[in-house]
């Protein structure tokens, strides 16, 4: 600084001191509002601007800390429009730019407060005012619904439309995070129709387009919520609402059953119809994936007739047309399931949409015959099996889902049986008739010709059985009730020829020798059996009426004679 300038500066300072300039450290009267933003939230989605509607709490004091007003003491927030002259100028300026949940200290000089007049009995003239303010809500009449998708399922075949009935969980808060309601605390979903006026307008709009399982945040301005009146004590007037929503499920009263074919066998010779008896496994879930029932957990299929009202209507419809072995998803609206009341036994809530993932094991009709498919038949097949024939055959037995049950190959020799003697299930007996030696067949045996509703050891009740059979050999049988038949007329003096030592009595050895001789000479044949000695022993026992170990002339009778006398079955 030049010497002349330095002298001028010193003179000016001296004059200011003489005239009484403010001391250093006293800034003098405030020209504008002093703003101390002592708490700013980390996330600030919006700042209050001129023309916005705001809600806030405040404490008002003088410089000495004496309180002159407080919204807290009145138990109600202050609501109004900022920046349009409805507030004192200092407050109008001090509130602009605030975020929700921001806190500010404001110092308002008199000319931006109540000036030289003040407020009688409350604020003296030329008072500087101190406000501690927290912003709670900001909105504008031009605001729209704010929807944020928080999560969404990968699969979404359908979204909510007007007139749909929805079930959803929610947490409801004010814009500052104050909770006012929650469906979770009540332990049940909120259930209602969309777009029919049962909800506030903002929620009606905010639920549209949602998928089952989707989560959304929905911010609703007051004019689409409870407006100027608020709601009870929990939602103040002119409050913006924030809902965190999880859509559990939805349906429309006009909905039918929705089918999704997950896996259909390449070969489907027959589809289930009304009146068929179906055995199937299933997992039953709600739309949010909650499992409410499973046949797998019981290790037992669910067995029922379809189309006859034994099961819920939706499942009656959903099983129509299934193939054996098919896997199908059946989505059933509540009016075709358990309705508004739900099913407490299965923990199914009221108005719940049900999803069944079904695996059809088999089905049949009570009128079904045995299905016979000839896989191989030898050329020149002239002799076929009939009832009473003795047959040897190999077989594999399984369920229609491929589960192996039994096999003759697990044993050293083929299965042996006399057809028509009630020694095997009726369906297998029928399937073995009219076969040639060497022929192979596949038999499908319905349960009423198999092991019935009760099943058998290793065989589930009402199971359709599949047999792969191969006829190894066959022996011509004898009529029912006979153990031996003559190829021609029996000897005229049968007893005398049978009594080999002519002692008037025929013991078991003589009887056996005689019968074996007749068979060897082709004069007659025994009932086919794997144990011919037992057949002969049974014959002898039948003829030895008094069981004294020998047959007398009076005891010996031909079967034809016995039939006339209705006494006994024998020769």
Q: What features would you describe in this structure?
A:
This protein has 571 residues and is α+β, with helices and mostly antiparallel strands. It has 5 domains: 34-139, Chitinase A, domain 3, CATH 3.10.50; 146-251, Chitinase A, domain 3; 258-362, Roll (Chitinase A, domain 3), CATH 3.10.50.40; 371-475, Roll (Chitinase A, domain 3); 484-570, Recoverin, domain 1. Helices cover 15% and strands 30% of the residues. It contains 11 helices and 28 strands. The protein has helices at 3-19, 71-74, 89-95, 183-186, 201-206, 313-318, 426-431, 494-498, 508-520, 532-543, 559-565; strands at residues 34-39, 53-61, 67-70, 78-81, 103-108, 129-139, 146-151, 165-174, 179-182, 190-193, 215-220, 241-251, 258-263, 277-286, 291-294, 302-305, 327-332, 354-364, 371-376, 390-399, 404-407, 415-418, 440-445, 465-475, 484-486, 506-507, 524-526, 550-551. It is rod-shaped, with a radius of gyration of 49 Å. The termini are far apart. PPIases accelerate the folding of proteins during protein synthesis.
Which key features would you list for this structure?
Chitinase A, domain 3; alpha+beta; six-stranded antiparallel sheet; single chain; rod-shaped; 571 residues
């Amino acid at each position: 600084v030049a010497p002349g300038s330095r002298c001028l500066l010193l003179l000016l300072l001296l004059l200011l001191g003489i005239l009484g300039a403010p001391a250093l450290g006293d800034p003098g009267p405030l020209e504008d509002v002093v703003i101390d933003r002592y708490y700013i939230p980390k996330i600030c989605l919006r700042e209050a601007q001129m023309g916005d509607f705001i809600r806030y709490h405040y404490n008002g004091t003088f410089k000495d800390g004496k309180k002159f007003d407080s919204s807290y003491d009145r138990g109600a927030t202050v609501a109004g429009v900022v920046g349009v002259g409805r507030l004192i100028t200092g407050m109008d300026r001090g509130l602009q730019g605030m975020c929700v949940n921001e806190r500010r200290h404001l110092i308002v000089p008199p000319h931006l407060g109540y000036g030289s007049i003040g407020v009688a009995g409350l604020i003296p003239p030329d008072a500087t005012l101190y406000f501690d303010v927290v912003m709670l809500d900001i909105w504008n009449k031009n605001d729209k619904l704010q929807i944020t998708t928080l999560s969404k399922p990968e699969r979404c075949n359908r979204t909510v439309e007007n007139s749909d009935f929805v079930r959803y969980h929610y947490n409801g808060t004010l814009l500052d995070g104050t909770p006012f309601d929650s469906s979770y605390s009540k332990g049940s979903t909120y259930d209602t129709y969309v777009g029919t006026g049962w909800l506030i307008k903002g929620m009606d709009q905010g639920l549209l387009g949602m998928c089952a399982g989707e989560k959304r945040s929905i911010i609703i301005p007051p004019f689409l919520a409870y407006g100027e009146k608020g709601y009870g004590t929990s939602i103040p007037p002119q409050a913006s609402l924030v809902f965190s929503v999880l859509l559990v499920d939805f349906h429309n009263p006009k909905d039918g059953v929705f089918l999704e074919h997950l896996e259909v066998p390449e070969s489907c010779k027959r589809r289930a119809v009304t009146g068929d008896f179906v055995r199937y496994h299933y997992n039953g879930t709600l739309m949010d994936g909650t499992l409410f029932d499973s046949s797998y957990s019981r290790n037992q299929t669910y067995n029922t007739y379809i189309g006859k009202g034994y099961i819920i209507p939706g499942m009656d419809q959903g099983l129509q047309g299934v193939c054996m072995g098919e896997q199908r998803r059946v989505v059933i609206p509540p009016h075709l399931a358990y309705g508004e009341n739900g099913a407490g036994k299965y923990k199914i809530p009221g108005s719940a949409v049900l999803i069944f993932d079904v695996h059809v094991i088999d089905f049949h009709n009570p009128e079904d015959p045995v299905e016979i498919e000839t896989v191989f038949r030898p050329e020149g097949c002239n002799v076929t099996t009939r009832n009473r024939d003795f047959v040897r055959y190999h077989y594999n037995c399984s369920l229609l889902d491929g589960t192996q049950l039994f096999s003759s190959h697990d044993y050293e020799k083929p299965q042996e049986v006399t057809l028509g003697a009630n020694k095997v299930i009726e369906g297998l007996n029928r399937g073995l008739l009219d076969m040639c030696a060497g022929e192979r067949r596949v038999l499908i045996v319905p349960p009423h010709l198999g092991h019935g509703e009760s099943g058998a050891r290793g065989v589930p009740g009402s199971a359709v059985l599949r047999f792969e059979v191969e006829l190894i050999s066959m022996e011509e049988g004898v009529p029912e009730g006979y153990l031996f038949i003559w190829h021609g007329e029996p000897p005229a003096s049968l007893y005398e020829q049978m009594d080999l030592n002519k002692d008037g009595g025929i013991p078991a050895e003589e009887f056996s020798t005689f019968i074996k001789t007749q068979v060897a000479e082709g004069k007659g044949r025994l009932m086919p059996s794997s144990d011919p000695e037992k057949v002969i022993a049974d014959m002898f026992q039948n003829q030895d009426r008094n069981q004294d170990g020998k047959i007398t002339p009076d005891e010996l009778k031909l079967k034809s004679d016995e039939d006339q006398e209705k006494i006994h079955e024998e020769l």
